[in-house]
Structure formats: C-alpha cells, structure tokens
Amino acid sequence: MPYVTAGRVFHLMSALTLACALVGAACGGGATSSGSNGGGGGSGAGAEGGDAGSASAGSTSSGAGAMAGVGGGATEAEAGAPADASSAASPDASPDDASTASSTAGAGGATDAGKTSDAGVTNDGAPPSADGLHVVAYLPNYSGSYATWAKKLSFQKMTHLNLAFALATSTNQWDMGASDANVKAIVDAAHAAGVKVLPSLGGGGGDQSVLARYNDANSVGPLVDNLDAFVAAHGFDGVDIDIESPENLGAKYSTFVAMVVAKMHPEGKLVTAAVAQYLQDSMSDATLHAFDFVNVMIYSSLADTMKQGTYYVSTKKVPKNLVVLGAGFFGDSGDNEYSYAEILKADPTAWSKDTATVSGATVHYEGMATMKQIADVSKGFGGIMMWEMSEDTTDAHSLWKVIQGEL
Q1: Quick one: which of 217, 223, 232 has its CA closest to 266?
Q2: Does 78 score more than 50 pLDDT?
Q3: Mean pLDDT of 246-255
Q4: Helices (H), 72-206
Q5: How far is CA 257 from the centre of its chain?
Q6: CA angle at 180 for the pair 175 and 185, rounded to the nearest 5°
Q7: pLDDT (tens digit, 9 = 90+) per residue, 361-380?
Q8: Nearest 5°: phi and psi at 146?
Q9: Which phi and psi angles does 167 have, rounded to 5°?
C-alpha cells in the first residue's frame, strides 16, 4: 500500500521474484506511486517472527508457497501540528476499471436490502449493507504470525480487517501466505469481536501474480471460481482487490471485477478495493462504482487526504459514505521508509509532530495530532483505513489508540 522507496527495493524485488514463481511467468514492473499498498514496511512495535515473508508451518490454503507483500510507504505530513494523544484514523480505497457491464450495486449504488448475518452474509442474496462508518485495518502476513496477532490485536472500533496479501498461483489457486491454522485464528478472533475479515488480493508488486491470471482469458474463470472456494474455506466475508498497475486496469480487469462481484454479492459477500487518484484514469467509472466501498491510498497529509476524498466524491461521483480515507502508520524520507514505531524509537517526541530525524534523514509522517484530525474528518466520509497495524506502537502514543479515541 505505501510508496515504494529506495530503501524497500529489496523487498519489492524479492516479492516480485516470488510472485513470478507463483504464476510461472515473467513479470513486468507494475507502476507504484504515492498511495500504494505494499509490504516490507519497517517493523512496528510488537511485530514478531512467524509468517514473515513465508508461510507459517503447516499447509497453506488453495496453493503452494507463501510470499511476503511488497512495497514501501511514503508520507508527507504538515510539520509542527500540535500533539493530541486522544485519537487517530486511517482510511483505504478501492480501484475502478474499464468497460464491463455489471448488474450488481456497489460504490455507486450499494443496497441495504436483506438482513445481514454476523458473518456479513445476507439472507436474500443482496449485497451487504454499506451503512455505518468503516474502520478498516490492514495486517500483513510478514510481520508475525496471524495466530499471535489474534491474541494481541485490539479490535475495538474496528469494522473490517484486511489480510495482506493473498496471491494467485500459476494454477489459478489462491495463497494467503500463512498456514490455515493461523488464518483461522485471526478470522475467529475478529469474528468474535464482530469484525469482518477480507483477504486483500495482490498489493503493490504482489498484484503481478493476480493480473497475470486475469489477463489470460482461459484463466480468469477458474481464478474466480477458486477465489469463491478460497473465501468459503476460510470463512472470509468477501475480498478486497488491490491492483496497482495502471496498464492492467482496463477491460480485462473490469471483467475480473464483474465476475468477482457476480460470485460474491449473491452470497452476501463484500467486494472492496484499494484505490488512488493516480490510478483512476486507467479504470472505468462503471467498475469503480461496482465496489461496495473503496479504500483511498493516501498517506501524506490531512490536506492531501481531504483533496483525494473530495476527488472521489465530486469528480468520480462515489457516494461520500463509501469513500474510506487512508491513514499511514509509517513515514518517508524520500529515500527510505520507516515504521511509526521506528520513528518514535529514533525521536521519543515524534508523536507530537509530523517531521522527525531518523538516521540523519528528515522523515515525514502523520503524528498523533494529524491522525486525530484525519479520524475526525473521516467521520464525514465513509470512514478510515490504516496501513498497516504492525507499524504502530503499543504505548500511549499509539496511532491506533488515537483513532479509537476519536471514533
């Protein structure tokens, strides 16, 4: 999700190599830019070894091999914001695409029809209701085992947990990059707290494994069928689609999205997407409006967050309550990315501002006061999305605690 920076090239190349191995094909470089969801971020406080960069011990679901997410993260924040430890926020957006005709209601017309069960499945086959504030947290499969996170992650105020990332294999199967037991642990814990769980498909760099399959006319059907089985096997509440390669968001992407929606919505499952303004010219508005809600990948400043939120509402005509604003738990120096926990370790006062010095470099990020403002603004939109939970700290300066306090 975050930007790919020079300091994350190793993670990007390693992940792309693994993705290529999964799909059994040479991968072209997907475009990454401001507002990208990836993996390989700095280790956050409390991150533990486990599934880091590979599957945990035990069988992986629907496909062999596990893979770390890719990318880096960059934020530019307004320095000097007054400190406030009481709240924080983070949104996430969804991608749109080219010319498929889909009869399902989504970001442009989600319906409230049907009663929704605790697992998010409607009883009459209608799409899940989009009512209420969305508080979406991304959790990667490379920063400690999901079983460990199931025991320590605070689900208070959270509505959706997106597991990053599920990748496609060369046989059109899906791999969560973690053992079935670990996935079950986090899904069960989230469901017990009333939180919906979605696998995020692709991610910055990892999306190469997915787009290689949907660009093949002979593979897209089996890919979607196997995705349906993958979701059912793990008790997921839908899927989050995170494709960040502009040149691969055209008609074939639209066909893929329409087929996923056609599978998921009759089962009462969600279909959301991670989106960013730099991607939207490559996507059809019809596809953008097919999603139940979108997570906007912007992690730089309050002003930029509001600008992109307004773009989706005013220019792209996505209902305001379906536009989820992004918030970053990381910072960027221009050459490298640092987790918020790493920034605080380098400068214990970093929580009170949006700029700090780490290893001699000036790093921009969203501190506690800015995070509080973003969380507050998100209440006028569809909610907030956080990239990502393992990069936060767990002490009194936690950005997640700021968001929880504000919502």
Answers
A1: 232
A2: no
A3: 97
A4: 146-152, 180-192
A5: 16
A6: 125
A7: 999 999 999 999 999 999 99
A8: -65, -30
A9: -115, 155
- Domain residues of the chain, as ranges? 6-406
Answer yes or no: are the C-beta atoms of 201 and 273 closer than 8 Å. no
Phi, psi (deg, nearest 5) at residue 361:
-105, 145
The DSSP 8-state label assigned to residue 215 in this structure reads T
* Other beta carbons less than 10 A from residue 216's beta carbon: 15
Structural element, H or E, at residue 69: none
Question: Side chain identity at 54, as an amino acid letter?
Answer: S
Query: How far is residue 56's CA from residue 66's CA, in Å, rounded to a whole number?
Result: 8
Q: Is the CB of residue 226 less than 8 Å from the CB of residue 259? A: no
Q: Summarize pLDDT for 386-406 with one digit per residue, the tens.
A: 999 999 999 999 999 999 999
Do β-strands 196-202 and 134-140 pair in parallel, antiparallel, or remain unpaired?
unpaired
65 torsion bin: left (phi>0), alpha (psi -120 to 50), beta (else): left
**Superfamily classification of domain 6-406:** Glycosidases (3.20.20.80)
C-alpha 296/C-alpha 276 separation (Å) is 6
Cβ proximity of 292 and 298 under 8 Å: no
Beta strands 361-364; 355-358: pairing state: antiparallel
Q: Is 356 left (phi over 0), alpha (psi -120 to 50) or beta?
A: beta
Buried b (16+ CB within 10 A) or exposed e, 53-88: bbbbeeebbbbebbbbbbbbbbbbbbeebeebbebb
The two beta strands, 383-387 and 323-328, are parallel
Strands 330-332 and 337-339: antiparallel
Cα–Cα dist 186/137, whole Å: 13
Q: Which of 110, 15, 96 is nearest to 53 (CA)?
A: 15
- In contact, 309 and 297? CB cutoff 8 Å: no
From CA 142, how far away is CA 390, in angstroms rounded? 9
Strand order in the sheet with 337-339: 337-339, 330-332, 361-364, 355-358
pTM of the predicted protein model: 0.75
Residue 266: what residue type?
Answer: P
State phi, psi for 258 to the nearest 5 degrees.
Answer: -60, -40
Amino acid at 242: D
CA end-to-end span of the chain, whole Å? 23
